[in-house]
Write the structure tokens for this entry.
Amino acid sequence: MLNRSDIVQLIGDLMRTELARSQADSLAIFDADTEGLWTNLPTDIKQKAEEKAASMFGYMPRTFSSLERMVDYAYASFLKNQQITFLTSGSTGTPKQCVHTVNMMWEEAHGLTPLFEGISRIVSLVPANHLYGFSFTVILPHALGIPVVHLPALPSQAWHTLLQPGDLMVGFPLFWNYWLRCENKFPGDIQVLSSTAPCKDEVIEGILQAGAHRFTEIYGSSETGAIAYRHQAGKPFEILPFWDISRKEKDPLIKRCSTTKWQSLPDKVIMKNERFLFPVSRQDACVQVAGENIYPKHVEQVLAQHPAVKECRVRLMRPEEGERLKAFVVLREGFGPEQLETIRTFLIKRLTVHEVPRTYTFGEMLPVSELGKEADW
Amino acid sequence: MSQTINELKALIASGIDLGGRDLSRLSEQTPLFSEAGLGLDSIDAMELLLLLEKQYGIVFENIHQGREMFRSLGALADYVDKHRTK
């Protein structure tokens, strides 16, 4: 099902992700030449990319003398193992492995194809090394027998020359939010896809008003893949046909029709009937920054290790404040707010780019409500 | 330092949350997307392009120009001078 060029795309996006996450080279998104990217990769990033590729394709980590050899080895491992393992950030900072077999991928792809009839090309704005990108920009094109083009997720582009009728644009909520802020319009017959985080109703409505032929939002997770979909704001998500659902327990359980393993949904949900649901809140304490799963508690634990930090709290900004994490810090005696740069540098060395809080508030004690509960600031 | 660089500094300061970073010390060579420089990330890239479109009428047309355009404050100023429509 996968060919060698898919493996090149996966490894290339893996390298671009590592370069951006570490802030070693965020501009790698503009480098379509994966061979050139490999050649100029800093040693520490190359090592990380090699480790992650080994985890993804299921072989013992090893170094390679060329990209070609790495791709050959990864492809042979995929053909042997018939599975790919995706990593998602775990609540403790240790990545969690999510295994997807070829059978699962095909089952999902064939369950999704009826949603995208009439599509003649996929325009990818997401990396293929995360499950969402892999499912919709690697597997789905194979299932539909259509080509895919990869573009950087920058909303201000010459879309009238880049898009063509029959395109499905694969993006994420923040991108669609910026699409509307740029006042972009869709040329005729363009479909839009969004996932990785909930898309606000006003964004869905705005995208349709901007001329999108159809909007599809996918609900799912790295552990499960796609679970449900909807086309309209305010409507519940319909569970995809390859999932069984059980409501015998307090919270609903799901399983792939082809398996016997029941599992929890990634979110607390409100069921509207047997196969329709509204996600309410995450089961874990995960938040999304730029489509990436982030655990504020893990960031707090790392921040608390700084010698100047006595106590701290980290949370997602309110919508009017921005799209990132913010931190409240109580400093130890003898330290002042001039510690900001050392704290930021400390975190940059230990966290990924979107885990590092953008703003810091210093105070003498953590903010609490009148009732003594933790409060926002 | 060129007029455009000063304009860009003001634009970035007003439109992008830099978390308290001081823009006054930035030079033409300051990298935009690296911790050695301004430390902008992918969200900032979207915001910056939005600001450039609103302020200068610039629409990003060629992926191959992206790396050079965003390399530094000076490179971005050059790009703006060559491609601005307002």
Remarks:
- The longest helix of chain B spans residues 42-56.
- The CA atoms of residues 21 and 38 of chain B lie 8 Å apart.
